[in-house]
Amino acid sequence: xxxxxxxxKSVSGGPAIVLVRPQLGDNIGTAARAMMNFGLGDLRLxxxxxxxxxxxxxxxxxxxxxxxxxxxxxxxxxxAVADLQHVLATTARxxxxxxxxxxxxxxAAEMRRWAAAGxxxxxxxxxxxxxxxxxxxxLADALLTVPINPAYGSLNLAQAVLLVGYEWFQAGAESxxxxxxxxRTRPATRGEIETFFAxxxxxxxxxxxxxxxxxxxxxxxxxxxxxxxAGLYEQDVQTLHGIVSELVRGRRGGDGG
Length: 257
Description:
The protein folds into two domains: 16-174, Alpha/beta knot (3-Layer(aba) Sandwich), CATH 3.40.1280; 190-251, Helicase, Ruva Protein, domain 3 (Orthogonal Bundle), CATH 1.10.8. Helices cover 43% and strands 11% of the residues. It contains ten helices and seven strands. A seven-stranded parallel beta sheet has the order 3-2-1-6-4-7-5. The protein is globular, with a radius of gyration of 20 Å.
């Protein structure tokens, strides 16, 4: 379907679309085209296999060059989501992680609430062949799964972005504001939470809690998921930093006072 009218004002906003290690420039371009259809302008690439810039992406974008011109490039998923307060991870297969699982419509309703509250958010999409790995998924608050034919669950990258964009766009008329809990600050960004995780992991290593090297990766993921499920606010993160620091100080004998 062709329906481009450049005389009309384009809509904007919506989730940051984070493509993690995309493999083909064509897929980046068609994902940008899908974004443009639904007014999504924040495209972030994490370590694209064929590098950036990519002429095949530009050709496949079919005029959605405004999205490509504004995209941001990152070396890691952690860096790409550091400024976001809410993150969803798309997945097509079961994940044995204790995270909420949302369909596209419910996810769109949640995103509209975050948008109304002025809280930045984004959606992670993994490589075309393998999808997101568990370390990427651990960075998310919840999983976003599309209900499709169980005998043929094959969506390409642009189709997945298109589905999320469509549901976001359709949810616009039904969006409602979020009431912030009394006495709470804003939700913590991923960067603030990652700084706390680094602090906590360093001290757990120091006290020997993570001494089992074989189990360490899964233990760290489980601990991260525990805190992410809590929906931490900035004030909560500061309090947790203080708790860890005081526990360490007590273990080391305090200040002698």
